[in-house]
Design goal:
With 119 residues, the chain is mainly beta. It has 1 helix and 10 strands; from the N terminus they run E-E-E-H-E-E-E-E-E-E-E.
Length: 119
């Protein structure tokens, strides 16, 4: 069983850096129109366990479809390290793009498929 750990991550150029406390037991690959184009592998955590440590003022945002998810990205390199929204139970949540986490071997983690295209 995986336990909660501290992770750091960033966009490609380092303009946005963050820290996250999360259990990295599995990743989610969504097939919605955005995720399938950018190739995200997502890990979810409560907003209270996430902090932008560098660049919060410079983060750009994109919303589509229902507008409920704030896809945050770097205006310099274009990488989207995380998105903010609300979990089904109403908890403010973050979806971290696990490809942006430092020192994580993504090939060792199972991937759960999400049919976001049907929502």
């Amino acid at each position: 069983m995986a336990s909660k750990r501290s992770y750091s991550g960033s966009c490609q150029c380092g303009n946005i850096r963050f820290s996250a406390e999360l259990v990295l037991a599995e990743l989610v690959a969504c097939n919605c129109s955005r995720c399938r184009r950018v190739g995200h592998l997502l890990a979810y955590l409560p907003e209270s366990d996430f902090q932008v440590t560098v660049g919060e003022a410079g983060v750009s945002e994109y919303r589509f479809h229902t507008g409920r998810i704030a896809h945050r990205f770097c205006p310099i390199c274009g990488i989207q390290p995380y998105a903010a929204g609300t979990a089904p139970d109403g908890t403010p949540s973050i979806a971290v793009n696990a490809r942006c986490l430092d020192g994580v071997d993504l090939d060792t983690l199972p991937i759960k498929r999400c049919d976001g295209a049907s929502y």
